[in-house]
């Protein structure tokens, strides 16, 4: 089952472009797309750093090889990884 976001990547990109062009504040843009201001601010920071690709989503969870998982467990057991 794929991941579903509340707002499409197109809406997020357009919101970021509107902010960049000065076509509103985070608050006014958030109201127009029915999101909260903090979300729009985070969208913009991600967009500013990574561009439109920041909103690409994966259709599945990450998977790790058996060898990688075993190496992580072994490092934990011998104390290389600190439990925080």
Which word captures the global form? elongated
Helix coverage percent of residues? 40-55%
Tally of structural domains: 1
Mean pLDDT: 88
Beta fraction of the residues?
Answer: under 5%
- The level-1 CATH class: Mainly Alpha
Protein architecture, described:
The chain has 84 residues and is mainly alpha-helical. It has one domain (9-78): Arc Repressor Mutant, subunit A (Orthogonal Bundle). The chain is 55% helix and 0% strand. The protein has four helices and no strands. It is elongated. The model has no long low-confidence stretch (mean pLDDT 88). This is Helix-turn-helix protein.
Quick overview of this protein structure:
The protein is mostly helical and 84 residues long.
Q: Key features?
A:
single chain; 84 residues; mainly alpha; Arc Repressor Mutant, subunit A; 4 helices; 0% strand; elongated
Please give the structural blueprint.
Blueprint: H1 9-20, H2 26-32, H3 37-50, H4 66-78
Helix pairs in contact: 1-3, 2-3
């Amino acid at each position: 089952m794929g991941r579903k976001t509340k707002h499409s990547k197109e809406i997020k990109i357009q919101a970021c472009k509107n902010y960049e062009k000065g076509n509103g504040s985070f608050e006014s843009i958030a109201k127009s797309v029915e999101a909260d201001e903090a979300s729009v601010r985070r969208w913009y920071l991600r967009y500013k750093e990574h561009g439109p690709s920041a909103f690409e989503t994966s259709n599945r969870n990450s998977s790790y090889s058996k060898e990688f998982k075993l190496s992580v467990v072994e490092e934990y057991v011998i104390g290389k990884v600190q439990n925080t």
